[in-house]
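Budget justification note: compute hours in this period were largely spent on complex prediction jobs such as the one shown. Inputs:
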Amino acid sequence: MIERAPVEYSDVRSVDGPLLVVSGVSGVGWDEEVEVRLAAGEVRHGVVLDADRDLAVVQVFEGTRGLGRTGTRAVFSGSPQRVPVGEGWLGRVCNGRGDPIDGGPPVFGTELREIAGSPISPASRIPPSDPIVTGVSAVDCLATLVRGQKLPVLSVGGLPHLDLAIQIAAQARAGDERFVVVFAAMGITHADASAVQDGLEERAAAGELILLINTAADPIVERIMTPRVALTVAEDLAFDRGYHVLVVLVDMTNYCEAVREVASARGDVPTRRGYPGYLYSDLASLYERCGRIRGREGSLTQVPVLTMPAGDITHPVPDVTGYITEGQIVLSQDLHAKGIAPPFDTLASLSRLMRRGIGEGRTRADHPEVAAQVHASLAQSRSVRELSELLGEDALSGTDRLYLRFADVFERGFLAQRSDRARALEDTLDRAWRALSVLPRRELTMTSPATLDARYVEPDPPPGDPAAAATEAG
Amino acid sequence: MPDADEGALGTITRVSGPLVEIEGLRGPALSDLVEVGPLRIPCEITADRGGLVTAQVYEYTGGLAPGMAVRSTRRPFSAALGPWLLGGIFDGLLRPLTGGADLLRPGDSAIGPPRGGSWRFVPHATEGDAVGPGSLLGAVPAEGGVEHRVLVPPAVRGRVTWIAGEGERTLGDPVARVGSTPVTLEEWWPIRTPRPVRERLPGDAPLVTGQRVVDLLYPVTRGSTAAVPGGFGTGKTMILQQIAKWCDADVIVYVGCGERGNEMAEVLDEMPSLEDPRTGRSLMARTVIIANTSNMPVMARESSIYTGITVAEYCRDMGYDVVVIADSTSRWAQALREFASRTGEPPSEEGYPARLASALAAFYERAGRVRTLGDTEASVTVIGAVSPPGGDKTEPVTSHTTRFVRCLWSLDADLAAARHYPAVSWRESFSRDADAIAAWHVERGDLRWAGDRTRAMSILSEADRLEAVAQLVGVQALPDRERVILLIARLLREGVLQQNALNPNDAFSSPAKQAALVEMVLAIHERCTALIEGGVPATLIEELDYADVLRAREHTPPDASDGIGGIRDEMLHRLEGLR
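Corresponding output:
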C-alpha cells in the first residue's frame, strides 16, 4: 500500500450533498481517509472519491449539514481507511464506523487494516464443506449453511426476516469450534436495534458477538462503511486467529440505497432503477469476502439480509445479490399470512454449497435424501393444491389428499418453530421424516429402500386429525 | 516484457477508481502498457486526447495521487505464453496464482511467466531446415497431458541456424535460432490482437459436449460460437463446468470472469481428480484456468476474456481443437460500462457505451476453424455465459450476443424451478450449425441423426401447445393420439434431455448412447401410435410403468448403447401386451 504523512488543507471549493471539494491539495491519493474539522470544532469523517490535479472530492460520512466553505479544514490521513483489528472487538457494541457506543473505551487492536480488504487468491481458497448448524429446522435441513458460504435472506417489508436473522445469529454453532458472530445493522430503526441487542444478549455476554449499529437516523453515507468495518474485523478473526465467523448484514437494501445516493451526488451514469453500473462490483467486493483459505483454521460465512422493494426479486438489489451469492433463503408472504414462522419458502430457497456440507460424517447419512424428498413431495403437494383449487377437492385421489395433509404437517410440525428455541439437527431431520411418513412409502421415490427402512415412520392406525400430529411446534 | 522505458516518464493528473489520467508521456499509443506510481501498477492506455492520456488500471488504486510518476513500456499490453500454461491457474493478466500469496495486493506480482522451473525440450527440426511462421521446431512432451509444441513465432522466417538438443531448458534459454532470431519457450502476444492464421475454414465436425440437450437438439461445430443466457439459479455455471469437463476438445480455457471465488475453488478441487474418458489423462492437464473473480480488480476482469482467447489461439496454433468458456461475458460488459462511466463516455442502452455491440462481435469473431500458419487444421470454439439482469433477455448484452453467436442455449427459469437440469429451453434456443452437423452425420453413414432431431423437436413443441390446451380443458378432453404426445414428450424431457451432473453414468453421454436414448423414445412413440390406431385406449398406455425407460440414462454406462436396446425391447414388449 502507498502511504504518506497526514496533510491539512482549508480551501473548500464547494459543498454539495455528501460531497466536499477541496482545492489546492498536493499529493492526496484516491480512497484516502479524511478528517473534516468544522469551524465549531466538530470532527467528521470522509474518503477521497476523486483526485484531480489539485482538487480532491471528499465524501463526508456524517453528511455536510452545517458545513461551510469557510472555516472548514480537511486533514488527509495519507492512507486508505483503516480500523484496528484483533480480539479486542469481542463483546463490543459500536456505531456504523466502528466507534464504541457501549460506553467503553475505544477499540484497540494489534494492527490497523484497510477496510477495503484484499481479494483472496482463487488458488488459495478451499471449497466450503462443513455445516454451520443454526438450530432453525428449515435452514439446517433444506438450505444448509456451509462454513465459508454467503447465503442471503430475501424478504419483503413486514415479514419477520429480522427475527430469523437474530435467531440464526443467536443459535449458530460450528460444532465445538470457536465461533463468533459479527452483526452489522444498516439503516434499521431504533426499535429493531434494541430487538437485536436483546436477542443477542447471551451471545454478547459470552464474548462471541460484535455488534455494529447504524440506525435509520444515523448518517446514510456511514452505511457504506459499516459492512466493510464488519468484514475487516471478521477476516482477522477468521483467517489470522482461527475463529469460525458468521457475519450477518441487515439490511443490504438500505446499504445499496446509500450507494445510489452517493452515485447520484457524483453524477455517475444511472443504470437499472437509478443504481450505478458498479453496483455488481461494489456488492461483490463485500460478498466475496468470505470463504476458507488453505492451511488456515477459521472460516468466514455471510448471511446478508435484504428486503425486496415491492417483493420484486428482479429488482437490482436482490438480483445482483443472487448472482453473487451461493443460494438464497426466501421468505413467503403466504406462509406468514398463515401464521407459520419462520415463513420459509421451501421451493424458492436453495443452498448451492449444501451438497458438500451434509451427509455421513458432516450431518447425518440420510440428510441429502430427506432434503431432496421433502422438496419433491412439497412440489407435488403444491400442484395437487392448484388442482384442487381449479377442480375442487372431490376431484382428488386418496394419494392426492395425503399430499395436502403432508404439506400441513410439514408446515406446522417442521417449519414452524419458536424464535427463541434451537432445534438439534437430529430433531430437525426426524421431524422431516415424521412429515414425510404421512405419505405412503411408495411415493417416496427420492430415497433408497435402505434409508426408508431405517427412517420411515409406519403410521399408527388410524391416522387421526393431522393437526394432532402437528401441534408440537416447539 | 522489457523494462519500462525510463525516458518515457509522465505524471498522473487524476485518479478515480480504476481510471488514471496522465500527461507528459512521449509518443503514447493506444493499448500501451504503462506503470503508475511507486508500486509500478500496470495499466493500459485507452485514449489520448491532445496529450491528456486516459488509462485503465489493473490493480486497486488506493493511495495513487496526482503528481506521481508514470513509466511507459511503449509496447502494447501483452500476455506471456509458454509451456507453463496448461494445468495452471492465472489472473486476468495471466499472472500465475499458484504458489502466490493468499491475499492479492497491488504491486505484489509482475506480468509475465512464473519464475524458475525448467522444461524438457525435444527438437523436431534440424539445422538447415527452411522454416516460416508456425513451423514446428520442437516440443515439450507432457506425460499424461497435452504436448506443448514450440513453433516459429508469427513474424519470423528463415533457416534454422541452430537448435538445442534434447534436454532441460529454462525459460530464458533459446531452444533454436531462426536466421539470427533466437526462439525461446516464452512468447509475448498483445491480447487485443487476434493471432494470424493461414485461412479460415467453414465448420464441419460437431464438438461433442456430452450434454444430450446440446448435442442432440442444439449442436455446435468445432470453431463455432455459443452463448448461454440465464438468470441466477438457472444453472449456467453448472452446464459450463460440465462442458469444460467432458467435451471432446484437446484444450479447455476456462475464464472465470467476475464470478464466485468458491466456484473456482470447487473447479480447482475437482478437476485434478477427474479423468478424461477418452484419453485416461487428468482433465486438469488439458485445462487452463483464468480466474478473475468478482472482487478482483475490475479492469483485469475486462482483460481476462482477451487473455483467455489469446491463450486459446496460442494452443490452436499448435494444431489443437480448443474451447474457451467465458463465465460470464456480462461481467466483462459491466467492467466496460464502469470504466466508460468514469471517462464520461456517453451512455447508450442501460448505461453501456455504444461500442458494446462491436466489442462483443469482435470477441466472438476470434472463434473459428482455421488452417494454421503451420498448415494444420485446428479450431477455437467460444462458449460465453450471459447473465441478464432480472432474467430479462431483452437487455443489451443478451440481445446483442444473440445476434452474433451461432448457437444459443437459453436457460429457462421455469425449467430450473422444476429441477429440470440442464434447463436449456427448447423454445428459445437455436443452433445455426445443425445443418452442417446433419451433413457431417450423413457423410459418416448416419442417416438417422437429423430425422430423429426433427421428430424430437416437433414432439416437444407440440406437447407445449397441448399442455396449454390441457390446462384449460383437462387432459381427459384430449384425443388419445395427443395424450400419447404428452406422454412421449415427458419421456423425452425426463429420460433424454435431463441429465444428472452428479451421477457418473449420466454426467456425460457418448454420441452412441445419446442416439440410443432418443431412438428408444421414438420407437415407443411409434408403437403407442400404432396401439391407439388399433383401438387401445390412451389411459391404458399411460398407466404402464416407464421407470426403466426414464432411468436408462442413469443405469447404463456413459459410453455404451447396448443396454438401452434391451430396455427398449422390454418396454415395446409390455406395450404390445396391451393389445
